[in-house]
C-alpha cells in the first residue's frame, strides 16, 4: 500500500508514512445542547490519544471524563463542569457521542480498530 520513500531531511527509506494517513470518516465536531447552551465536542476519532490513554489508567469513568475533557478543550470543559450532570445523562451523552463518531460499543477513541 505505502511505498518506501525518503524525506528531504532524511535520505533513508522508511516502511510506513504516518504523516500521509488521513481519516476515513468526516471529522465534523459533534454539537450538543445542554444547560441552555451549545457545546461543541471534537470528533472522537480526532482526539489526541495521549491524554486519553493517561485517563484510561484510572478506569472506565476516568477514561470517559478524559474523553469529554479532551473533546471539549480547556475553556469549554471548565464551563461544562460548572453544570451538575446526573450519571444517567453522562451515560446517554457518551453513548450518543460514541455512535456519532462511528465507534462500536466498548471501542474507545484510542482503539486501533477504527
The number of E-state strands comes to 2
Radius of gyration equals 17 Å
Low-confidence stretches: none
Beta fraction: 5-15%
Number of H/I helices: 3
User: Structural class, from secondary structure content?
Assistant: mainly alpha
Main sheet characteristics? 2 strands, antiparallel
Description:
This protein is mostly helical and 114 residues long. The protein has three helices and two strands. It has helices spanning 49-56, 60-80, 87-100, and strands at residues 30-34, 37-41. A two-stranded antiparallel ribbon has the order 1-2. A hairpin with a 2-residue loop joins strand 1 and strand 2 (37-41). Helix 1 (49-56) packs across helix 2. The radius of gyration is 17 Å and the shape is elongated.
Short description:
By secondary structure, the chain is mostly helical. It contains 3 helices and 2 strands, in the order ββααα.
What secondary-structure arrangement, pairings included, does this model have?
Elements: E1 30-34, E2 37-41, H1 49-56, H2 60-80, H3 87-100
Antiparallel strand pairs: 1-2
Helix pairs in contact: 1-2
Keywords:
single chain, 3 helices, 114 residues, mainly alpha
Amino acid at each position: 500500500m505505502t511505498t518506501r520513500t525518503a524525506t528531504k531531511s532524511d535520505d533513508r527509506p522508511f516502511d510506513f508514512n504516518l504523516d500521509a494517513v488521513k481519516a476515513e470518516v468526516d471529522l465534523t465536531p459533534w454539537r450538543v445542547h445542554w444547560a441552555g447552551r451549545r457545546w461543541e465536542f471534537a470528533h472522537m476519532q480526532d482526539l489526541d490519544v495521549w491524554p486519553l490513554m493517561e485517563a484510561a489508567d484510572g478506569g472506565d469513568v476516568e477514561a470517559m471524563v478524559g474523553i469529554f475533557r479532551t473533546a471539549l478543550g480547556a475553556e469549554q470543559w471548565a464551563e461544562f463542569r460548572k453544570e451538575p450532570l446526573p450519571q444517567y445523562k453522562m451515560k446517554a451523552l457518551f453513548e450518543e457521542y460514541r455512535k456519532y463518531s462511528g465507534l462500536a460499543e466498548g471501542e474507545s477513541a484510542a482503539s486501533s480498530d477504527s
